[in-house]
Amino acid sequence: MNKLKHAGKSALAAIMVLTMSVTVLAACGTNKSAEQPGSSPDASKAVNKDTKKEISISMFDRGKVPTEEGTYEDNRWTKWIDENSPVKVKWIPVARNQAQPKLNALIAAGEAPDLIWEYDRNYISQLANQGAIQPIGDYIDKYSTTYKAYLEKHPELQPYLKFNGQVYAVSFTRETLANHGMWIRQDWLDKLGLAAPTTVEELIEVARKFKDGDPDGNGQADTVPIALSASAHSIEQAFFFTSENQWYVEDEQLQFGRILDRYADTLTFQKQLFDEGLIDKEYITDTNFQRSSQLLTTGKAGIYFGNWDIEELNNNLVKNDPNVKMVPLESISSKYGKNGLFQEAPPSVLTAFNSKMSEDQIQAAIQFIDWMLEDGWVPLKYGEENVHYTLVDGVRQKRDPDKFKKEVSYASEYAIMIDNVLQPEMFLAMAAQDEISQNYAKVKGKSLEIAMKNKYRRDIPYSPDFPELTQLIATFAPIAQQIEAKVVTGGNSMSPAEGLNELRKEWKRLGGENVEKLAQAWYDANINNLKYR
What we know:
Number of domains: 3
Shape: globular
Strand content: 5-15%
Helix content: 40-55%
CATH topology of the largest domain: D-Maltodextrin-Binding Protein, domain 2
Strand order of the largest sheet: 8-11-7-12
Number of strands: 17
Largest sheet: 4 strands, mixed
CATH superfamily of the largest domain: Periplasmic binding protein-like II
Number of helices: 21
Distance between the termini: 45 Å
Radius of gyration: 24 Å
């Protein structure tokens, strides 16, 4: 394993200026240099590893740790964390697409980790209502320095951390609110003499031309115009302002997105894409979207419903065909207007504390959070200076994309606190100097601008969080998925209108009408605190 050198204080100061975190460190009076993996800690920070408390933390297993690097539980970065942080950490990986069921099973068995993190605020609310996690506001006041000062600088986080009037989680502001994004093959548009689509109807027409017009030039009608990802359905729902787990304010009344009248338009759109062969016919069984990714990277798809940043997919595609030109596609409009694609609320991951933790364990966990926010996240995100990046005029410039992908890209899963803000102009300076990286950096900056160009409709900052609702959603979601799959893939067996009726019947059967009344009462009582920032 590469030995990582101790970063000098002046170099770290330059880095912190770039990442906009020096203010927090100065406010806390703790601007210390972060030891790099493999180095010895400062004498002032060194802790006998035998005396360190141990905590356990959940994490998402995304299958990105190369065999030669080890496992999510044991690799260069877990060793570095144990060496340099104030605690030892036992990491509990859970598969990303099965995270909540796995965590629920661990909680039921009494084997849940001390710290549980998720992006889904509704899930954290569910754990709070179940008594699986505990309030931590008093402990933050008592034991924290860095994070407590950080919260004072970011009061916009506070409403998201509270459940039933008490603080149950910690979080940090996102590097960017951008999340979803659409991409299109500009070279295919140019070859077929087409303009980038701006409406739902134009998107369908372009997809048809990609399907029938032989854009890859192999003389066969073998293209699948639109490749999907885990974000695809949310993108399709955004066109019609019908996010499936979001509440909308219609005439001062809260209404659930998945049973709105216009949800039938979402189903109609999805069904049309399937019936006309504009998406992969096997998309339902492609649960990890590997097949869909291969369609894109092997040049068989020309439109991608994914995230705003697709560097790895783009690089694989360009390696297969250097003439490819993937460009970001702005959100399109429907008869309801133009909605931005999904943009996040300010907080990133929400980290909650197991209700079985003792005060000593909580103190140790908060010390770890302070350390991570102050020092720990930097190498976990960027790697080792002069190995994975070079500091050029205060900017971390990636040296070798393949080496970074292998040795560092998975490490960000351990950074449960990050103090960083991304700006479009940063990417070109940060990218490796090879042609592929430099070309993508230009496109990436443009993609971030496009992703944030149109505001995503979010009528309230977060959903109601009472127990009846969380239970209803948990029960309703898999039933709704089955109904929707029948509408989209079942030919004439169920029309979109019939599907919407079935969704509403199930919602009502499961207690939806009562939940709507409770949600409205919650909204009326909290309306002054729910003005979206």
